Amino acid sequence: METATTRPFAVVTGASSGIGYEIARVLGNDGFDLLIAAEDAELDEAKEDLREFTSVDSVRVDLGRPEDVERLHEEIVGKHRPVDALVLNAGIGAGGAFAGGTALEDEMKLIDLNVRSTVHLCKLEVEPMVARDEGRILFTSSVASTMPGAYQAVYNASKSFVQSFALALRNELKGTNVTVTSLMPGPTDTEFFERADLEDTKLGSGDKDDPSLVAEQGVEAMLQGEERVVGGGIKNKLQVAASRLMHDSAKAEMHRKMAEPGSGEKEEGK
Q1: How far is 255 from 249, CA to CA, in rounded Å?
Q2: Rounded to an integer, what distance in angstroms lies between the CA atom of residue 115 and that of residue 157?
Q3: For residue 248, pLDDT beyond 50
Q4: CATH of domain 9-268
Q5: Quick one: pLDDT at residue 117?
Q6: Domain map of the chain by residue range?
Q7: What is the pLDDT of residues 34-71, one digit of tens each?
Q8: Using one digit for the tens of pLDDT, what is the confidence trace for 187-206?
Q9: How many CB atoms lie within 10 A of CB 243?
Q10: Three-state SS across the chain?
Q11: Model confidence band, residue 266 (pLDDT cutoffs 50, 70, 90)
Q12: pLDDT at residue 197, as a whole number
């Protein structure tokens, strides 16, 4: 039987529910010990569930705060174990019109979590990986990264940043044994749409992918060192492929029809 020092070790952020929890579950089933992080009370329940089949520690932190990113890093260092897999999954959404429909405070919090904390934690953890020439990093990006997000302007922009950052870092690390993979889910059956106030949109009320499937696809791609994987069903893959042929203005208009407040009700009323 593997000991705690020989089993691989993974850190997963945003792991209390949704895709993050499912990624942690897949990694645990694959033999990884886990350190999971999130800011909400659901983290405790996730930890107990995951303990049924692997060793799990948890840290309750708000990664939108730089001091909490540093605290998570201190917890990682305190394990005295190399991070074999780093999953940068923590993120939030915000729906509504940028002019008059959303709060600046919410959008700055989104940037702090989706963008700044991703860069901050990655910076702290990638350098030890490079020093020992081994490691896997998985960024949770989004299909949304491929298009201007009318009525999700800041969210889509944040995911475009994550996608670009992940691909650039991957290129920089060529020649090392540290790989970077981008997971690009489409609409997935999680709490995201409720929390982002998108339930009355076509996006929020439409069909969604199973987060366990998305997680399995992401973990498999990460462990194989792939550049990216479009999560979910064929519809998402077709959407990403089609977006390469569309002008940005057309993509923004398409997104508007999916994310405009009330668009889900209009769809039902056809």
Answers
A1: 10
A2: 10
A3: yes
A4: 3.40.50.720
A5: 98
A6: 9-268
A7: 999 999 999 999 999 999 999 999 999 999 999 999 99
A8: 998 888 888 788 889 888 88
A9: 16
A10: CCCCCCCCEEEEECCCCHHHHHHHHHHHHCCCEEEEEECCCHHHHHHHHHCCCCCEEEEECCCCCHHHHHHHHHHHHHCCCCCCEEEECCCCCCCCCCCCCCCHHHHHHHHHHHHHHHHHHHHHHHHHHHHHCCEEEEEECCHHHHCCCCCCHHHHHHHHHHHHHHHHHHHHCCCCCEEEEEEECCCECCCHHHHCCCCCCHHHHCCCECHHHHHHHHHHHHHCCCCEEECCCHHHHHHHHHHCCCCHHHHHHHHHHHHCCCHHHHHHCC
A11: low
A12: 81
**Rounded Cα–Cα distance for residues 76 and 71 (Å):** 9
Residue 2 pLDDT class (50, 70, 90 cuts)? very low
Instruction: Enumerate the active-site residues.
Output: 155
Contacts of 97 (CB under 8 A, 6+ apart): 151, 261
Fill in the amino acid letter for 242: A
pLDDT of residue 228: 97
What dihedral angle (degrees, nearest 10) is formed by the CA atoms of 125, 126, 132, 134? 110
Tokens standing for residue 183:
């997971």
- Give per-residue burial for 192-230: e unless 16+ CB within 10 Å, then b: bbeebbbebbbbbbeebbebbbbbbbbbebbbeebebbb
The pLDDT score that the predictor gives to residue 245 is 84
What count of residues does the chain have? 270
